[in-house]
Amino acid sequence: MKTFIVAEIGLNHNGNLDTARKLVDVAVGAGVDAVKFQTYWNIPEYRHLGFSKCEWQRLFLYCELKKMKWFSTPFDVEAIRFLDGLGMDIWKLPSNKIVLHDGAMMEGIKKTKSCKQIILSTGISTFSEIEDYLFFFKGIPLTLLHCVSKYPTPIAELNLDRIEELQKRFNVPVGLSDHSSSVFAAPITAIEKGATIIEKHITLDNGAIGPDHAASLNPVALIEMVNRIHWYEGTIKGE
After folding, report:
1. What pLDDT digit, counting tens, does each position of 157-177 carry?
2. 185-216 in b/e burial notation, b at 16+ Cβ within 10 A?
3. What is the Cα–Cα distance from 165 to 17, expressed in whole angstroms?
């Protein structure tokens, strides 16, 4: 099965719509399968990194004009309603316990009209909590993402064996949300272990001010990662 590659733009647009569009262009040029953002209106410390509803609509329309699939992690109930109204069909839940322990948000996502798939980052979640989430979303296709909640993640701490452990324990697809500086070694190793999704943050400049730029791939590195994955799938896996 072909690996689903997600370019996580997240907050790396720094609240600038033109920068967000440039990052979408980078993702299109690299040949990823989707871009992902973060949508919220009730996080005061990150309000300067967000967009208005009108700006979000313009950005998502830009993705569609570029034939790039998009989805966004909601961080409040208003964002859930907004994204559902736009027909977003992939819903990404972070490993942030504030979101995952918010009953209103969990119910809101479960009741969306557009949801066809849920992607859940395991991060700081325990096995017991993961079981609870799987039970809560029973009936909705769900993929777990192994990730280490450290930005950037030292390569020695990636613990990629956890991918196989999650597969065996929960019998669902598992991917990797990679916060390390590895361009291809970590993603390829994850795919060898059965990862079906690779998610990496992207940026225009690793030296830019912001929470995620240092743990992101610049445009050149993103192209290299995508090409290496496609080479691995075509040459080693024979797909």
Report:
1. 899 999 999 999 999 999 999
2. ebbbbbbebebbbbbbbbbbeeeeebebbebb
3. 40
Asked if 19 contacts 202 with a C-beta cutoff of 8 angstroms, the reply is: no
Please tell me the distance from the alpha carbon of residue 35 to that of residue 200, in angstroms, as a whole number: 10
pLDDT of residue 145: 96
Per the listing, tokens 């701490």 go with 157
Find the CATH number of the domain harbouring 218: 3.20.20.70
* Max CA distance (Å), the chain: 48
Lookup result for tokens 């290496």 = 228
pTM, full prediction: 0.94
Task: List Cα–Cα distances, 46 to 1, 28, 50, 51, in angstroms.
Answer: 37, 27, 7, 11
Domain range for 45 is 4-236
CA 37 to chain centre: 8
Token pair, residue 133, equals 């989430």
Q: Cβ-count burial of 43 within 10 angstroms (0-12 exposed, 13-18 middle, 19+ buried)?
A: middle
Number of domains in the chain: 1
Which contacts (CB < 8 Å, 24+ apart) does range 85-91 have? 86/57, 86/60, 86/114, 87/114, 88/114, 89/114, 89/115, 89/116, 89/117, 90/34, 90/116, 90/117, 90/118, 90/119, 91/115, 91/117, 91/118, 91/119
Residue found under tokens 């557009």? 114
Two structure tokens written together for 148: 């280490």
In the chain, DSSP assigns E strands to 4-10, 34-39, 69-74, 90-93, 117-121, 142-146, 174-178, 197-201
Distance linking the first and last C-alpha atoms of the chain: 7
Average pLDDT over residues 30-48: 90
